[in-house]
Automatic annotation (TrEMBL), chain A:
Species: Desulfofundulus thermobenzoicus
Protein name: DUF126 domain-containing protein
Domain Phosphomevalonate dehydratase small subunit-like: 32-107
GO molecular function terms listed in the Swiss-Prot or TrEMBL record: lyase activity
PANTHER family found in the cross-reference section: DUF521 DOMAIN PROTEIN (AFU_ORTHOLOGUE AFUA_6G00490) (PTHR36577:SF3)
Alphabetical list of Pfam families matching this protein: AcnX_swivel_put (PF01989)
Keywords linked to the UniProt accession: Lyase
TM region(s), chain numbering: none
TrEMBL record, chain B:
Gene Ontology MF term list: lyase activity
Domain of life from the UniProt record: Bacteria
Source organism per UniProt: Desulfofundulus thermobenzoicus
Pfam families in the record: AcnX
InterPro entries: PMDh-L-like_dom
Protein keywords: Iron, Lyase
Domain Phosphomevalonate dehydratase large subunit-like: 1-391
Protein's recorded name: DUF521 domain-containing protein
Lineage start: Bacteria, Bacillati, Bacillota, Clostridia, Eubacteriales
Amino acid sequence: MKESREFSCHPICRGRAGGPVLISGADICFYLCEPETGKVIEKGHPLEGESVGGKILVFPGGKGSSVVQADGLYQLAMKGNAPKALVIQHPDTVLVTSAIIMDIPLVDRVDPGFYQNVKNNDHVLVDAQEGRLIINRD
Amino acid sequence: MYLTSVEREMLDGKYGEGVALAMRVQVALGEAFDAERMVEIGRAHVALSNQEADLWFVEKLLQAGARCRVSPTVNPGFHLEYFLDKTDLTGQDMEMISRTRKAYRQIGATLSFSCTPYLMENIPRQGEIVAFSESSATPYVNAVWGARSNRESAQSALCAAVTGRVPLYGLLLPENRLGNILVRVEAEMGDDFDFRLLGYCAPKIGHGVPVFTGISGATPEALMNLGAELNTAGAYGMYHVVGITPEAPALEAALGGRAPLREVTISRRDLDEVRDSLSCPPGKIDFALFGCPHLTLHQVRHIARLLEGEQLKSPLWVMTSSTTRELARRTGLLSIIEKAGGYIVEDTCIDQPCWRFLEGKVGVTDSLKGAYYARRRGMSFVLRSITDCVRAAIKGEVE
């Protein structure tokens, strides 16, 4: 049975992208992802060993110096392993700038219902034009 | 978000695609943080890093015709000419530094190649709105000079330099600058090194705007160190030191008359624990490295005095700005340091490929930040005050 649920959000970087969801409970520094595989290599990170490549990444926010975040995302993008879209709770200047210059859709202020419903590998469409997230399940 | 007609024209491409790109980044930032409008900036500092994304973005802006309205000072990369015969630089290393210099010159930056521009080349006045990236720079201009800057990324600061504007949000607004964490410093702050240890207590301090009490007589170097370490162990655009920060003549003013959300006490034990958890054990050392952030002339003089008539067992490097190095040369400090077997290197950062020849070696430094980033380059460090580091380098070991 096809099921589709829609939630509101606040678009920061415009665009639309769909793909499988990957959820992280911890902040992410993209400099600590391996560009060739997209895998998180930060020791002790909840996503350690998982690839962010092609994912709709759901996480609290960014961390790291004013320099390395952009470089991390850039190197992932050059190897085709950048996430497709970013869904966050706490925007910071460094992460927002990095997403904008790499043209990756970024949203925040998501309807809390989204977090109650979403599960890893759900297919989610991030519509950062209209400010909505759509979870599609077969 | 409200835009003036000029800002609207920038966004629409009337001033070229490069300016439009810079404006798009800033409008998105403004929308992310609910800024009502843009404000003009007086100054900017770009934390140039000489890494791939940094070069890619500045070249992209440049090729799209962007030029800086406000000429920003820039961070160090490395001084290619000095390192040519000292380390095995790859063709790519050399190409990156040459292209970085060329791109930033063409876009209209001031090629200061220093990470402490707020002490010499680029000093804001109180209340001035600026766009400063770099760990120690953002908190220094906010907390010591009383200027207003968000914790910019290298790229957002460059966009601000191009458009001459930033969105009005965050630390540009007085209400967001008020302190909300009371940090009682009970440890006696002996020298500037203790301020590094204090900054590295960031995980204990937590998210927010800290207000430090119990500190008197902090030197510019101490405050430089505090900001650098706060932004290595955490993320802080602003702090208050009561009696030093212009907005904090007294505790009540720093807190805006409100009760703090949290109170933290920092003891000597906290500082010692930070040092011991990050430092390699004492013993033989291969080198000494200072200048993360770049040393001031005052610190260079201190090192020169300790080295007068001495001979170093371990080579010693001081990283600083070209201006400070030139002053050290004229003043005779450079020749004292060189006679002892040390070097002063300008325009250079620790997190650069030029230090490859120190890979796998153990050094001594006062910089927790430097030691943290150099770990990625295979260097490890014993951490001590500058005085103890220099004494150790003369003996070749830390006792």
